[in-house]
From TrEMBL:
Keyword Membrane assigned: yes
Alphabetical list of Gene3D superfamilies matching this protein: Alkaline Phosphatase, subunit A (3.40.720.10)
GO cellular component: extracellular space
Keywords: Membrane, Transmembrane, Transmembrane helix
Top-level taxon in the UniProt lineage: Eukaryota
Name under which the protein is recorded: Uncharacterized protein
Annotated source species: Acanthoscelides obtectus
Keyword Membrane recorded: yes
SUPFAM superfamilies for this protein: Alkaline phosphatase-like (SSF53649)
InterPro entries referenced in this protein's UniProt entry, alphabetically: Alkaline_phosphatase_core_sf, DUF229
UniProt-listed Pfam families: DUF229
Transmembrane segments: 48-66
Length: 674
């Protein structure tokens, strides 16, 4: 084969140029007409000076091939920032398998959607009459005038114990009972129960109702194995907040996490549409359809036959807790039946549902923002702290998984209100020593899924890239530096909820994360953050459907082109086919194509069938629903297919009230609204 480089000739020195074939000289024609290299300009180095050059080259080779972790040498924070910035300038993730651009949280394309949130007024400004600490409730005397109490002796108060009732077959897991007797309260009372309802009377009329939660030591937890130096696990979730929106809305909390040397996973990519398909992989390591096949056959089934992370921790002697606010739309309860047997030792979500039902107020969009005079999300954080403090005070190892939705589920800017509250929460945990023996994970499930920002390119990217921070105790980082170095390097790798599942599972035996134990299969769907995640990893390797993959490059298409119209028509027909059998739902018609993009792929998937993926945003009638759909076109077969699930970009409210299927509610427009 002829060397293609020999076809280029340079005739004059003035026209000489560098050659890929001759990197150290200029090419010209000799007197015999043959091409020669003129390297007279070079400075020749003494032969001994080549030794360090070869050594340096060999070092670079080994670093590239074996991905030696420079950060394990414990450089300063400043040098780490400089090193990562040089490599990843312009990209959050910049690997052979995935490139995710680094985006400005205040980019002009999204700036117009960022505005100060409206402060929330709970209970119409009437303060709480009772407050609580770790073990007791007490009257706040300064609140008496708000209840027209001039003499405290005229006030009569008592409390009922409230507790969960185990549901029967086909029932929903939502029932609570109230004790038959109301126990008298003077001005304070020590509480040994888990959940209570307080009621006060003035002149024989109810003047005050409140609810409180506590974390008493239970008989089932007293016999837990006490470890000499346990590493507890605490997961705190914040619904629907992208990584960039956390930077925008909660800068003080973010700064404090950085002071704790939290590792931020810059390439954490969601794998499903909403909360359920993104948290089920974290808690079980399974996709939703895999969960259905293995242990949850119908939405009327309880989740008792499924194995969650807390089951593993409980078998190892940990006390377990699960809690969420806005629990009416909770992970296991929205259009689902929950559990028959209580899944964890402590379960705050039952209390939350009772409290919001009886004293919930300041309702906005989908959530009650307040329980009586207290913000719902603040009450959840107070409960988490009570749980952590109680477990530590009693030397009980724990696994706690908590999820907050009331602050952030519906609004892009609302999390800003929680910035000082979350900051104080983490400061108190740290300053009181509760993080000295605890692995802390702060996370979200996805970014905001609707609204104006979601219809921008950056908003689409943000929705696919929620935040995850991991905070480890200093002593653990120092003793298990290889696992910690892997964690820091994987901050710049493509990661998923499946990886977070493996990470939390690894913490069942955190003292085994060293040496040969950290090896892993590069093609595994789930790989722990503490292990080696290859830089060649793609969305296909990680189990991320094309529709959700943030690694893809794309180009905008003419929305009026024939191929885009064909793709949009196919998408609408697909939605209507999904709604077949639901006569109460109207047939949808394409109203408009808002935008269309052609997505790029790694060579591995393109080679299968010369595929093309089109991501389009369409509007349908009736109802003016806005959908985002990824449609794959197979050139050989001339066929279309919807990839992943379809995203609904605007709220449907009561439009789908006539249907209970939690997937199809996104599509259905009830005929009775026509």
């Amino acid at each position: 084969m002829q060397d293609k480089c020999t076809t280029v000739l340079v005739y004059t020195r003035e026209a000489m140029s560098r050659s890929n074939c001759y990197p150290y000289g200029y090419r010209r024609l000799g007197s015999d007409g043959m091409e020669v290299v003129d390297d007279s300009w070079r400075v020749r180095l003494p032969s001994l000076l080549w030794i360090p050059v070869f050594v340096f080259g060999a070092l670079l080779y080994f670093v590239d091939i074996f991905e030696i972790e420079f950060l394990s040498l414990h450089p300063t924070i400043e040098s780490i920032k400089d090193f990562t910035y040089d490599i990843h300038k312009g990209f959050a993730i910049n690997t052979p398998g995935c490139k995710i651009p680094e985006m400005d949280p205040f980019d002009p394309s999204v700036q117009k959607f960022i505005e100060p949130p409206t402060p929330v007024e709970c209970n119409k400004g009437v303060p709480a009459l009772f407050e609580a600490n770790l073990t007791s409730i007490y009257i706040t005397r300064s609140s008496l005038p708000a209840y027209n109490v001039s003499d405290i002796n005229d006030l009569r108060c008592c409390y009922w114990v409230i507790q969960r009732i185990e549901p029967k077959k086909n029932q929903y897991d939502v029932f609570m009972s109230k004790s038959s007797m109301c126990k008298y309260i003077n001005t304070s009372a020590e509480i040994k129960d888990e959940f209570i309802k307080v009621q006060c009377f003035l002149d024989n009329a109810t003047t005050y109702v409140d609810t409180f939660s506590f974390v008493p030591i239970k008989n089932s937890t007293k016999s837990k194995v006490i470890r000499s130096k346990p590493l507890n696990v605490l997961v705190v979730g914040l619904d629907a907040v992208s990584r960039l929106n956390l930077h925008r809305q909660m800068p003080d909390t973010l700064k404090y996490l950085q002071q704790l040397e939290a590792v931020e996973m810059l390439g954490y990519n969601k794998v499903g549409d909403n909360t359920f398909p993104n948290l089920i992989p974290v808690l079980t390591g399974l996709f939703e359809d895999e969960l259905i096949k293995s242990c949850w056959p119908t939405t009327k089934s309880f989740f008792d036959n499924c194995t969650f992370l807390w089951n593993h921790f409980k078998s190892k002697g940990f006390v377990t807790a699960y809690g969420e606010d806005s629990s009416w739309m909770g992970l296991f309860n929205y259009q689902r039946h929950g559990f028959q047997k209580q899944a964890t030792d402590y379960a705050y979500n039952y209390f939350n549902r009772y409290a919001e039902t009886h004293i919930g107020n300041a309702h906005k969009m989908n959530v009650n923002q307040c329980e009586g005079a207290r913000m719902v999300y603040k009450d959840l954080l107070e409960y988490i702290k009570k749980f952590v403090v109680t477990m530590n005070n009693n030397s009980l190892p724990f696994f706690g998984f908590f999820w907050g939705a009331s602050l952030s589920h519906d609004y892009l800017n609302q999390p800003k209100l929680g910035d000082p509250v979350y900051l104080k929460f983490f400061q108190e945990l740290q300053e009181e020593g509760h993080l000295n023996n605890t692995a802390l994970v702060l996370m979200s499930d996805h970014g905001i899924r609707w609204g104006g920002i979601r219809q921008t390119y950056q908003g689409r990217m943000e929705e696919r890239l929620p935040f995850v921070f991991v905070v480890l105790p200093t002593w653990y980082r120092n003793n298990y530096d290889r696992a910690y170095s892997n964690l820091k390097r994987n901050a710049r790798r493509l990661t998923t909820p499946f990886d977070l599942h493996e990470t939390l599972y690894d913490l069942l035996d955190p003292y085994g994360l060293s040496g040969e134990n950290l090896k892993t299969a590069n093609k595994s769907r789930g790989i722990s953050f503490f292990r080696d995640i290859t830089k060649y990893r793609t969305c296909e390797d990680a189990g991320i459907a094309s529709h959700w993959c943030a690694c893809q490059q794309s180009k905008e298409l003419d929305k009026n082109s024939s191929v885009v119209i064909d793709v949009a028509t196919f998408a609408v027909n697909y939605i209507n086919l999904e709604l077949q059998g639901y006569a109460q739902c109207a047939n949808l018609t394409l109203l408009d194509i808002l935008n269309a993009r052609l997505m790029s792929h790694s060579g591995d998937i393109e080679g299968l069938n010369n595929i093309q993926d089109y991501m389009i945003t369409i509007k349908t009638i009736p109802g003016e629903a806005i959908f985002e759909v990824t449609v794959r076109y197979f050139e050989i077969d001339h066929k279309y297919a919807v990839i992943g699930t379809i995203s609904r970009l605007n709220l449907y409210g009561k439009q789908s009230a006539c249907i209970t299927d939690f997937h199809l509610k996104l599509y259905c427009f009830c005929k009775n609204f026509l």
